[in-house]
Every structure is written in C-alpha cells, then in structure tokens.
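Box S2. Input/output pair 1.
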Amino acid sequence: MDDNSKMIGENGCVFIDNSVTNDDIYQIYVASDAVFTVLTEAEVKGGTETDVMSKMNLSGKTIPAGSILTPYREIFSDVTITSGSLIAYKLGN
C-alpha cells in the first residue's frame, strides 16, 4: 500500500468498541475517549508479535478522543478497549 492510499484510507476501516484480533491495522483514530487493555504489533513479514502497552505508556490511561496511534514497526494486530471507541484503518480488505 502506498502512502497516498493510506492518506485516504483506501482499504477501509473498522469501528472498534470492544476488540479485534489478527488484523492488519496501520493507524488508529480514537473516536471517543478510550481505555486500552491490549495493543499488539505484528510484522507483516511474519515477525514476532509485541505487546506495546508499556512501550506507548497506555497502561491504565484514558486516551482522549482525537488521538491518533501508529505502530512502531509495521502493523497493529490485536486491539482491545474497555471503554470508548476507535476507527482503525486497515492495510487490506
């Protein structure tokens, strides 16, 4: 996926108000204040999944609406929130 495709969300998005697993998410927009319990990154090339909750300092925090989260490496694969809502932009359909 090229950068222009990412800018317009060409491959669609998914609304998250609970959890998604084993997905290919390149960006998360926090639609309403959210509390994360799981945020995992995986590499497109088959690398090992990494829990990034502490790396991003998200544990026990309420992330305000309007925030945008992007992965350190390539993609987010697993996302779980206990409150709030997200719009997650996907690499593929």
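Box S3. Input/output pair 2.
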Amino acid sequence: MSVKFPSTKITNASSKVDNYLNVIYELKNEIEEKGVEMELLEDIDSWRTCLDEIELVIKSQYKSNENKFETDNENNELIIY
C-alpha cells in the first residue's frame, strides 16, 4: 500500500492537465463544428475561473507565511528582523 500525499496528487493531476491541453492545442485548428467551438469556449472560461481561484489561494498562503513572526520559545519574546 502506497501513501499519496496531497503534493503528489497535485503534481500528478497537473501533468495530466498538461497532456490534455497539449492534445486540445494540437487539434484546435481541426475543429469544424460550431457547437464544439462554443463548448470549448465555455470550458476555457470555467478553467480560467478555476485557475484564478487556485492562484489566489497559493498567493495568499505565500503572503501569510511571509508575514509570520518568529518568537524565542524560552522567553516568548518577539524577534523582528
């Protein structure tokens, strides 16, 4: 039994997205049906929204880690660099 960490799952899912986006990119000039084009545009819009949310979460976590203060555990003094 192998243990999968969230970071491993994210990396695996990200590589799958890369592969499928590459397929879509290579086939984009072969789309002939107008309905398929419109569906793809709707999908792209929903992907963009999802990517914006992921980016916001990552940036907010990075900024919150950047703003943490370090304390001296013995004296509980605040150390500011």
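Caption for Box S3: Residues 34-66 form the longest helix (33 residues). Strands lie at 70-72, 77-79.
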